[in-house]
Design a protein that fits this description.
This protein is α/β, with parallel strands linked by helices. The protein folds into 2 domains: 236 residues, Alkaline Phosphatase, subunit A (3-Layer(aba) Sandwich), CATH 3.40.720.10; 102 residues, Gyrase A, domain 2 (2-Layer Sandwich), CATH 3.30.1360.180. The protein is 28% helix and 19% strand. It is built from 11 helices and 21 strands. The chain has a 5-stranded mixed sheet, with helices on one face. A 4-stranded parallel sheet has the order 1-8-6-7, sandwiched between helices. A hairpin with a 2-residue loop joins strand 12 and strand 13. The protein is globular. The protein starts with a strand and ends in a 5-residue tail after the last helix. InterPro entries: Alkaline_phosphatase_core_sf, Phosphodiest/P_Trfase. It is a lipid-anchor; GPI-anchor. It comes from Medioppia subpectinata. Pfam families: Phosphodiest. Belongs to the nucleotide pyrophosphatase/phosphodiesterase family.
Length: 389
Amino acid sequence: MNMDGFRWDYVSREKTLKGFPLIAQNGVSAKYVNPIFPANSYPNWYAITTGRYDETHGMIQNYMYDNQTGDHFLMGPHPNASHTHWWTQSEPLWITAEKQGIKTAMYLWDGCQVAFNGIEVTNCVEYHTVSEDQSKADEETRNYSQKILDDFADDKYRLVFLYHEMVDHIGHAFGPNSPTIREAIKGIDEILYDLYDSLAKRKLDKEVNVVIVSDHGMTQLDDFKPIVLEDRVDFDNIEVFLGGGSGAQITPKAGKLDEVYKQLRRVKGIKVYKRDDIPKQFHYKHNSLVLPILVTVDIGYTLRAPIIEGVVYPAQQSQKKPRGGNHGYDINDTDMRGIMYGFGPAFKKNFMAQPLEMVDHYNLFCHLLGINPIPNNGTDSKVREMLVS
C-alpha cells in the first residue's frame, strides 16, 4: 500500500492512533525512508517498484518532455500518462511477478494500465483523481482493502498494489501542520486498524504479508517566498518549461542555453545546473529525458512560472491560489522523508529498522514473493534484517 505524501513523523506526533502502533508492535517499521531525487511521486513510485534510481528507471519527474518525439508526460489521469514509451525503460515489479507466474492486481496505481513488451498485469483498476471529500476517499480505500482480502481468500492473486492519495491531497491543500491533515492521518489509521483486524478474523494473518510505504513527505509553505520567474527570465528564449513550485526543467531555444542559464543563476532561492553539471549524488543526469537545464528550489521558496500555452507545463493557474504544502525539495531535508511498515508471517515483531532508501523496498518485495529481481540499486542486507528468515 502506497500512502502518497505520508511524512515520516506523522505517526509519532499523533497520540491517539491505533492502527500504526498496532502494526509497529506486531511487525516492523523503519525509522524513516529517504526519497530519491526528486522527492516527487512518479520518480519514487518507480523507485519503489524497480529498486532503481530514475536515471536508470526513466520516470524522472511528474512532468516530462521527450525532445526526440515532442511528447509530454502529464500526471494521470491525463491520457499522455498512458503512452507506453514513458514506462518501458525499466521493468516494474508487477511485470517481473507476472513473468514468473505470480498473478497480480493493482488498484488506482498509475502505470498498471500500460503493457510492458506485450505483458499486462492480470487486473488493473486505473488511477482516477481523488475525491475532494475525505470520507469518500477513505471509503474507497477501505472498500478496496477489504476486496483485496476477498481476493486473497479466494486465491485469485499473490501480489496486490493499492494506492491512497488523500494524505498527499490534504497536505498540498492545507499543509502538513494543519488540523485537516490530522483528520486525514486518523482516517487512514482507522483503515489500517480494520485491515489488521480483518486479516485475523479471516484467518489470513498467517498467510498474508502487508507492506505500507510512502513516496515522500511534505513541507509547510506558509512563510515561503514566491519567485516570480517571468520577472527574472526572458521566456521568449525558452522552448519548454516543465514544473514550478519546488523545481523545474528547461529546454532553451536554439542558441539560447547560456543566456537562459546566466539569467537563472542570478535568481535568489534556486540552484541551476546544466545537464552535464548535475551532481552525481542525484543519480539523475544520465537519462535521455533530462532536459538541458535543471532548476532546484531551496527550502523557503516556491517557484512561479507564467501561463504560456505550449511552453509551460503544467498550466500554472493553480499557483494563483496559495498551497498549504509541497514536496520535491532537497531530499536530505527531514520534511521529505517517508515511511515503511510491514507485518505478516515473514516479518519480525516489534522491530525498528534503520533508515531505508526508497530503492531498498524492491528487494524486500522480491524476497516476500520468492522471485528473481532485476539488477537494482537497493541494499539487500537492510531488508533481510527485517525478516524472520
